[in-house]
Every structure is written in structure tokens, then in C-alpha cells.
Amino acid sequence: xxxxxxxxxxxxxxxxxxxxxxxxxxxxxxxxxxxxxxxxxxxxxxxxxxxxxxxxxxxxxxxxxxxxxxxxxxxxxxxxxxxxxxxxxxxxxxxxxxxxxxxxxxxxxxxxxxxxxxxxxxxxxxxxxxxxxxxxxxxxxxxxxxxxxxxxxxxxxxxxxxxxxxxxxxxxxxxxxxxxxxxxxxxxxxxxxxxxxxxxxxxxxxxxxxxxxxxxxxxxxxxxxxxxxxxxxxxxxxxxxxxxxxxxxxxxxxxxxxxxxxxxxxxxxxxxxxxxxxxxxxxxxxxxxxxxxxxxxxxxxxxxxxxxxxxxxxxxxxxxxxxxxxxxxxxxxxxxxxxxxxxxxxxxxxxxxxxxxxxxx
Length: 361
Ligand code: GDP
Ligand code: MN
Description:
By secondary structure, this protein is an alpha+beta fold. The chain contains twelve helices and 18 strands. A hairpin with a 4-residue loop joins β7 (97-106) and β8 (111-117). α4 crosses α5 (163-176). The mean pLDDT is 95. Manganese (II) ion binds at residues 185, 198.
């Protein structure tokens, strides 16, 4: 999961990496409370999950007295189509030089890879392709608690020595936070020292529970319920509810709905070996979405037994139409149960999805 800049900066600060003074606001008027702390000029940074924010208009500079007006503009804007809900307002740093620093995982050598470039900033991709020698690299064995000093010296070259501890601390962040990527672009020097002017941190999704991070920031009540049941669940805008087992089959169902020009209301993967009660929970959950007119249940029976699934669907007793495609273990028993209760069971997912699209149009 990719953290937003201000979330990443919080983690950086906790590990001793200096970041500019700043506050997060959700309305332009909130700024009035904070401006006196931030100096005569501020930088307003849209907290949106898009790359190249600066070039897309997501970073604005303002004098203190114009800052509220500028914040209003930024809140009204979309950055590459993404609405701005939070703005990080920071003191404007007197930047002397911009460097690039990142740590990723080098899968080939199973080690961390540290990259440092003398010329960072918004054009780093260009620098990296035009002058590959400007980017220095070091791999580090993840069993090491610190980046060895000789590697730090090799990485920073003639850049100021104050950068060395920042590299080491970023390495600590990566190790402790189970990060797949940590990036500071730009890492800047100012008369007051070195600062992480920007921050990017991607946490390994498999480590979110251990890290105590909740994936969906603004969960709906239904999304929380789905999480309690252990479903992978995402709400979308359409009217065709979707329940599948396995992320691949569920995604393929969504793709087919799109293909037949329907609109899915959600993604719900019940997971492997779903029993009767689990299926009932899933069907009721999806049926509870206000726009759902019909539900496609597309399950492959392996460990999952089709008769259990069928019982689960019948138990749910929802008012919307349910179109079922079941294949595999105990398929015939499942089919009988569904037919006895007046449910439609089709043999292929194409047929099931077509029937659902027809049902709503
Ligand atoms: P990105 O486009 O999402 O990578 O946004 P950044 O946070 O990296 O900001 C883009 C650029 O804005 C940086 O490379 C800097 O040149 C500039 N910038 C950001 N913060 C400051 C600041 O405090 N002072 C100055 N002078 N420039 C800044
Ligand atoms: Mn940046």
C-alpha cells in the first residue's frame, strides 16, 4: 500500500529524518490557525496518490497572506482526475540543492538496493536515462542493522556528509516498516540543514496487519463488515452485484460485465472453501447495497462445495434476483437445490453475466 506524503513523513520523523514544518488541512479556512507557525511563504501540497504531482499542478507556492486563497484553488482542482481532499501546508524551504534518494528491494540479489543521485527533483527520470552514471547504487544485505559507512561514503560522493545519516535512517524505516519502496525526491540541502522535501513509502501489503495499518482509509460500514468476514471487497458504482471465489475468477467476472456493457456494483471474493454461512453473509452484504438490482454468483467448487453454496444462497433469502454459475464439487446437488427454490443456474460465466446485464437493462 502506498502511503500519502504526510503519512510517510510522519514515519520519517519518527526515525529522525528531518522534514519541513507542516500541517495537514481538509478545508482552506483551517489554514488561518496555522499560518503563524509556518513563516512568510508556504508550499501547498495536494495529498493525492498520483505520480508527477508537481508537474500536474498539485504543488503550489504562496505568500502567507495569499495562502487561504491558494488553498481554495487547490481544493477545487483535480490532479490527474483525482479530487484534492487533504493538503499538506509546509514552510517553504530555501532550497540550495535537490538530491534523489530511494531504497527498494532488488529481487534478483534478494537484497535492498539504495539509489542516490546528485541531481534529484521532478526530472529524475530524465536524469537517470540521460546520465545513468549520475545515479549511484549500493546493495545491502538485509541482515545488516545499519548501512556500512564505506557504502554511505561511496553513495554520497562529494555531496554533503549530513546526507549519510539520512540514508541510514531511511534504511531503518524500510526494514522496520516492511517497505517495498522508500523514496525522498527531492532530498534537499538548505542553510538550515538537510530535509526530506517529499516522501514516498510503499508498505508490503502482506505486512499491513503486522504494521497495524488499515488499508481502506474511509471504509463504509459494509466494507468494515466485509473485512470482519475476511472477504476481499471493493464497492463500485454499478447495479450488478458480484460474488466470486478467487481474485482471478472474480476479476474475470467484472471484466465480462464490462465486456457486455454492464456495470458492476462491487468486487467480492469469498475466498477458498466458503461454506454455507459464509455464502449467506456474502449474498446479504452485496444485496444490502442500495443500487444492486441483480447479483451474479460465480463460484468454482473445489474445496468449496456447490451444495453448500446453493444452501447459502437460499438461506440469504434476498429480494433481488440471483444468477448463479456453479461448477465443480457436488455441482448437481447444488443445481437441484437452486432449481427447487426458483433460482437461475447457468453453465458458463458468459451466460450468467449476459443474463445479469439483460436483467438490469
Ligand atoms: P512531486 O511532484 O509529487 O514529486 O512533488 P514534490 O514534493 O517532490 O515537489 C515538487 C518540486 O517542488 C520539488 O522538486 C521542489 O523543486 C519544489 N518544492 C517542494 N517543496 C519545496 C519547498 O519547500 N521549497 C522550494 N523552494 N521548492 C519546493
Ligand atoms: Mn517528489
